Amino acid sequence: MTAGRTVLVTGGASGIGRAVAEAFAAAGDRVVIGDRDEVAAARAAKELDARAVTMDVTDAESVRSAVAEVTGALGPVEVLVNNAGVVAGGGPLVSLPLEVFDTVVAVNLRGTFTVTQAVAAGMIEAGRGGRIVNISSIGARQPTPGLGHYEATKAAVDALTRTSALELAAHGIRVNGVAPGPVHTPMTAGLMDDPQARAAWESRIPLAKIGTTDDIAPLVLFLASDQAGHITGAVVQVDGGQLLT
User: Fold this and answer.
1) Which of 19, 84, 127, 165 sits at 20 to 30 Å (Cα–Cα) from 187?
2) Is the pTM of this model over 0.90?
3) Backbone angles phi, psi at 236, to 5 degrees
């Protein structure tokens, strides 16, 4: 293990979270991958020379236990990346199954809240400040039919980001968000591998390409760095210009 900061990435076993964890590890930080998929988290941690912790972000006790485990092993979390998120399905609001809505709210909103609450409390107790980066989506600001349930949670994450930044500033804790547009990950692979669906998405993007996880990770690292020392409460889009259309 390296001698950098203790970094916790939720949902870090794959996709954007995996890329972010890899980038922090490459920068010399002590990375912990928090994921409810114990096997995938352990595999990713081994590949990155990181640490894995089993965590269900929808369960406050699971979160508290996982954060306590990390703190006991590596010291207080200094950087938190709230990346865990799901879409869980899609469809018009009038016919969307309530269980799909509830699942997305539980993971994307409740999960971001529970992990922020537990980690921020530890940061305050340690008295050394901290950095929190929430992974949002441009869907919070640009609606797509059939994804209203997902986009509502991301708009709520943006609101939580701003409130957290305001409340935690006095403790030296900065809170920001990153809002990707469409990104090719295991979660979106089915859509992205469909030529017609991919072309439809790309037609909405001025830079005419779907994002990759490598487009997202550098901004997360920047917002967690001292170079972003006067930035808090911001949600920055990485969308190839899609919000301009």
Assistant:
1) 165
2) yes
3) -105, 125
